[in-house]
Amino acid sequence: MSFITIIFIALCLISIAVSYFWAKRQNAIYPKTMENVQDYTFFFQSIVDSDGKTSGVEALLRKFDTKTGKWIFPDDIDKFTLREVIFLLHKSFIKTKHPSSFLAINISLKQFADPRYEYFIRWVKGECYPMELRIEFNMQGYSEVNWLKKIRIKKNLKLSRELNVAVILEKIQPSKAYYKKVKWLLNDIHGVKVPLSNFHKKTDNEWLEMNMGDWSRLIRKKNKKIDITEVENEDDLLLADKLEIDNRQGYLIDRPHSE
């Protein structure tokens, strides 16, 4: 056995050991049940195409607020492992079949880079069949992504394409600084989802560095899809028609609801 072969085997063993202990420390292999996990559930919101027909449905994580007695958007999604997301999806969704072509699930960047990602998407694909699966994630809260996480993300993007899972970058922002932060992702994702509130001018004097038209042209030039969310009035729909947006989502179309 040559010296190079021995070095290669040693590096492989070290890589496996590092991945194992990293995953175990992150509770990704043998996760502990998150505290008060019963206070969380998924709501669902319909998505329509340019003809107004239901094209998909998004699963939205919600937490029960004991003070107000209402379900609210949780601020601790990063604390969940993908195994716990599966637990909540099973509780909230599995017995329900939605009449749409795809199911969209939002996860954090940390969850998207998780070594158990393949197990997660294979499980959800089986449960939501015959609907296709879409995974949505965003870059909020990350100024930069380190090289190791980038490798994991690139690997899971490739895996998603192989398993016919569309990956959507959501919560797009109208600044060139944001574009520079995410451009390394744009060739490998299925498309983007733009929240209209980020692109509404608060005053006539406000200038947006990259408006909706800029993003639409940029994404279509890369042969990617562009969706919008936070559609709240007829003007928003008119803008979507003008820019030939693929899918639309928001309170004007449907409000999140439990099953």
Q: In a few lines, what is going on in this structure?
A:
The protein is built from 8 helices and 9 strands. It is an alpha/beta fold and 259 residues long. Strands 1-2-4-5-6-7-8-9 form an 8-stranded mixed β-barrel, surrounded by 4 helices.
Describe the structure.
- The chain is built from eight helices and nine strands.
- It is an alpha/beta fold and 259 residues long.
- The chain has an eight-stranded mixed β-barrel with strand order 1-2-4-5-6-7-8-9, surrounded by four helices.
- Helix 6 links the parallel strand 6 and strand 7.
- The radius of gyration is 20 Å and the shape is globular.
Strand order of the largest sheet: 1-2-4-5-6-7-8-9
Order of helices and strands: HEEEHEHHEHEHEHEHE
Radius of gyration, in angstroms, nearest whole number? 20 Å
Structural class: alpha/beta
